[in-house]
Amino acid sequence: MRIAVVGATGHVGTYLVPRLVRAGHEVVALSRGTREPYTPDDAWQQVERVVVDRDAEDAAGTFAATLLATRPDAVVDLVCFTEESGRALVEGLRGEVSHLVHIGTVWVHGLSSVAPMDEEDDREPYGEYGVAKDALERMLLAESRGGGLPCTVVHPGHISGPGWECVTPAGNRDARVWQALAAGETLLLPGSGAELMHHVHADDVALLVQLALEQPAAAAGQAFHAVSPQAMTSRGLARAAAGWFGREADVEVVPWEQFGATVSPEHLAESEDHLLRSHSASTRRAREALGFVPQHSSADTCREAVRALVDAGELDLGGARP
C-alpha cells in the first residue's frame, strides 16, 4: 500500500513511518521540512520526503490536491486541528483514496465521569483543543458511516517518548518535578493525588494506526483509544519515578491554590488541563477489533522519555539517571 503521512516527522510519525516501511508499505512523508524525526532510523532512507506548509495550503485551498499528487492509496493525518481543515481534506480525498486515519485526542471526553472511558461514553469536551477535536471526529465518522470517505479516528492519551518533555506526576512539564524526585526532596502535588493521567508511548500510537491501515474493513467508521495498559494516579506516578532513583517518593498533597503559588502560570494551566480531566481510557474496542495490545506501561514510557532528556543534556538531575 502507498501511504501518505502528514506531519511525518513529529512524535507519532517518528515511529509510524519506519513501522510502515518495515511492514512493506511505500511511504510518502509530508512535513514542513524544518526538523528531522526525534529518533533516527535507517528506514527513512526508503521514504519519499515532501516539504509542504499545511497552514498555507489550507488557506489557499490547495492541500488536498498537493496530497493527491503523491498518489496515495491511504492517508494518515497527524496534524489536523480544525473541522474546517478536516472537511476540506475529506472533500478533496473523497473517491480518490481508500482510507483516511486521523489523530484525535482523549481530551474529546472532557471531564471524566467513568473509569475506564469507552469511546462511545457521554462526553462534554471543553477547551479549544478538545472541542475542536470532538467536532472533527463527529464530522469524520459521519462521513464514513454515511458511505463517503472511509475514516478512522485514533485518540491518544498523553503522547510521550524519547526526544521531548514528558508530562510529570504534577500534570505539567516542570523539570523541577523530576529533579525533586531524583534528589529525594518533597514534591507538592495539587488536588488529592488520586487524579488520573493516561500516558501512551508514541510507538504504541503508531502501532494502532498501522493496525487500522492494514484492517480497513474493521477500522472504518470507528474511533479507538490509544493509551498504555493502565492509567496512573499522580501520586502513583511520583512513587514509580522516585523508584527509578532508588528512593521513596516524599509527596505532599496540597490545595490547588497553594500549589499554584509555587509554579508558573503556564505550569499551573498545564496541571489543571491534565489532572482535572482525570482520564483513564479503555483499549477494549481496539483490542477486539484490531488486535491492539500496547507494549509500554505509563511508568516505563515516562522513564524512557526522562532518560533520553538526561542523556541529551536537556535535563539536569544532578548526575542521577533513571
In words, what does this structure look like?
The structure is a single chain. This protein is α/β, with parallel strands linked by helices and 322 residues long. The chain folds into 2 domains: 2-159 and 199-226, Rossmann fold, CATH 3.40.50.720; 162-198 and 230-279 and 298-311, UDP-galactose 4-epimerase, domain 1, CATH 3.90.25. Helices cover 40% and strands 17% of the residues. The protein has a 7-stranded parallel beta sheet, with helices on both faces. The protein has a two-stranded parallel sheet with strand order 7-10. α4 links the parallel β4 (74-77) and β5 (99-103).
> What's the CATH first level of the largest domain?
Alpha Beta
Helix content: 40-55%
The main sheet orders its strands as 3-2-1-4-5-6-11
Global structural class: alpha/beta
Tally of contiguous helical segments? 13
- What is the name of the CATH architecture of the largest domain? 3-Layer(aba) Sandwich
Provide mean pLDDT, rounded: 98
User: Per DSSP, what share of the residues sits in E-state strands of 2 or more residues?
Assistant: 15-25%
Largest sheet: 7 strands, parallel
CATH topology type of the largest domain: Rossmann fold
In terms of per-residue confidence, which ranges show pLDDT below 50 for 5 or more consecutive residues? none
Any idea what the shape is? globular
Identify the CATH homologous superfamily of the largest domain.
NAD(P)-binding Rossmann-like Domain
